[in-house]
Structure formats: C-alpha cells, structure tokens
Amino acid sequence: MALTSPWTHRHLLGLEQLTAAEIVSLLDHADSFLPSCKDPGAKRTDLAGKSVVNLFFENSTRTRVSFGLAARRLGAEVIDFAVGGSSVSKGETFVDTARNIEALGIHMVVVRHSCPGTPHLLAQHLRAGVVNAGDGAHEHPTQGLLDLLTIRQRLGRIEGLTVALVGDIRHSRVARSNIHGLLKLGARVIVCGPPTLVPPEICAMGVEVAHDLDRILSECHVLNVLRIQFERQKGPNFPGVREYFHLYGVTKERLARARQGVLVLAPGPINRGVELTPEVADGPSSAVLDQVTNGLAVRMAVLDACVKAVG
Ligand code: NCD
To answer: Which ligand 1 atom sits closest to the C-alpha of 112?
Structure first.
C-alpha cells in the first residue's frame, strides 16, 4: 500500500517536525488500513520478516497493546521488553540496552519514557527506526494523529474547525501533539483549564487560552477532554476533584449548551465522573471507541511508513 506523498522519515518523534502534507499522507495511509483493523482475521504481510520491539519504561495499556497488535497485523515479529526484569535495573545505560536489542536485528523501536527527548536520543544512536509512544509531557505523536483522523472522519475536515483541549494542559503530551497537528492542518485551537494547569508559555505555540469552559462551549466543534495527570503533579493544582468537575467536567448539561453536533474526544484512560460523565463518554457525541480503532490504523500506517524508509 503506497503513501500518497513520499515519506522519507525512519523515525516518528513528534508532530512538530512534520509538514502538513506529511501529516495528511499519514492520515490517508491510516485510512487505507482501517478495513483490516475492523477484521481481526485479516493477516497482512506488509512487514513480514521485520521485527518491532516495544520498549515501554512507563505504564501503558492501550498504546502498548495497540502498537503490538498493529505490528502483528502487518506480519511483523513483536518483542515486548519488560523493563522491570531487564538489565536497566542492573545499571546498564538506556542507550546500551537499546543498542543490545538492536544487535538482535530489530528494525523498529517503539519507545515510551517519562523523560522528554528519550526517543530523540535513541534515534541518534540506532540504525533502527524509532517511534515515540509518549515522552514525558512532551509529545505523543500517534495519539495526535489518531485524534486528527477521528475528527476528519466524523466532521469531514480539520481546516477551519475550532478545537478545545480541555483539562490538564501543563502535563499533557497529548495536548502538545494535538496543538502541532491541528494548527498545521488549519484548525483554531483553544486550550482551556484551571490557570495552574495551563502554562502561560503555551500561547507561544499559537493557541488561545481560556479558563472558563462555559464561555467557549458554543464556539467549539470539538472538545478533546484530557485526563488530569495526577501522577505527574507535584502538589495539588486545584482545591479538589469535585470543584474541578464543577468547572471543567463535560456533562450532558454542558453539551446541551455546546454547538450542535459537537464531537467529544478523550485519549483515555478516562476518569469517569471527573473529566466527563459516563453518559457523555458513552453518548452519541463521543468518539472514544472510534479513537481506539483509529489508533490501530494510525500505528499500522506509521510502522509501515517508517519501516519502508529504514529499508
Ligand atoms: C495518554 C498518555 O499516556 O499520554 N494515554 C494513552 O496514550 N493511552 C493520555 C493519558 O495518559 O492521559
């Protein structure tokens, strides 16, 4: 399956480095994999003879499973690297561990790490392709792409839309990848959350800042509801979860005041009753399960494109 425009990158480190045309070519490529995502019996051979290692130094369920499944569906061999039982815990450096894994003949490394820039470091040292599956609060490019794909699928376009990223912007790599991708494709982006969770420097990325969700609701075509990253917060950033929910929780009542046809996205895992209510998460405005299916297609597209650039 060919990409619509030439893709020459061995690595996908972030959406910041990509052009709008490269992003669109990946979305189109992902679209072409959607039928095989929906058919679990479909076995492709695009990556037969290739091997992909999942190198996850941070907790992950859906992203790790999604990358593993994407690689297997394309016929690749997948190695899941368990950090707990590895030589990293014996003092081996991160780069040495990765080089040793590469010496086993790995073509692609999918890496998640709490330290921003880790995938970039690996990309400098390995011949294999590197895909960033989340580096600290920096970027999570495949999540950004699957959000873009879901918006394009549901609303038919991205250019000219107003998209609000709601919640914990400060600690969110999903927010940063969304901002880069959405702005490149011509959307207007509003980041909305408590002042303590919206860093002032975010304006330099070209987004608008709002702290009152109710005031922007009627303008937004999309609400992308981000999880409060409690595990990354050093101390309390707001008085309590109930107050947060009162001001920023996406409820049926708030949706009734939103633009007609508003699309609700959430990268997951969702804290039901904190960022959004179960009736919204499971309701007709929500595309959370489509996001998961699209995530598989995006990861198939990214692995296929990068492996082919590795040669
Ligand atoms: C996101 C992440 O890890 O950054 N989740 C994911 O990839 N499944 C968002 C989150 O954890 O809130």
So the answer is: 3
Q: How far is the CA of 268 from the centre of ligand 1 (A)?
A: 6
Task: Please write the tens of the pLDDT for every residue from 168-223.
Answer: 999 999 999 999 999 999 999 999 999 999 999 999 999 999 999 999 999 999 99
What is the reported pTM?
0.95
Q: Picking from 4-8, 93-97, 165-169, 227-231, which range would have the lowest pLDDT averaged per residue?
A: 4-8
Which pair of tokens denotes residue 180?
């880069």
Separation of CA 61 and ligand 1 centre (Å): 9
Give me the residues paired with residue 52 across strands.
Answer: 78, 108
90 pLDDT above the threshold of 70 = no
Ligand 1 closest atom vs CA 61: 8
Ligand 1 atom with least separation from CA of 173: 4
Question: Which residue is listed with tokens 């990765």?
Answer: 98
Going by pLDDT thresholds of 50, 70 and 90, the confidence category of residue 85 is low
| Ligand 1 neighbours (beta carbon < 6 A) | 62-63, 134, 140, 143, 173-174, 227, 267-268
- In the chain, residues under CATH classification 3.40.50.1370 are 20-139+292-310, 141-287
Considering the domain 141-287 in this protein, what is its CATH number?
3.40.50.1370
Residue 86 pLDDT > 70: no
CATH for 20-139+292-310 is 3.40.50.1370
Do the Cβ atoms of 189 and 183 come closer than 8 Å? yes
Q: What are the phi and psi torsion angles at 86 (to 5°)? A: -95, 175
Burial of residue 234 (CB within 10 Å: 0-12, 13-18, 19+) is: exposed
If you measure from the C-alpha of residue 134 to the centroid of ligand 1, how many angstroms do you get, rounded to a whole number?
8
Are 73 and 43 within 8 A, CB to CB? yes
Closest to 14 (Cα-Cα) out of 148, 166, 120: 120
Span 256-282, pLDDT tens digits: 999 999 999 999 889 899 999 999 999
103 alpha carbon to ligand 1 midpoint, in Å? 30
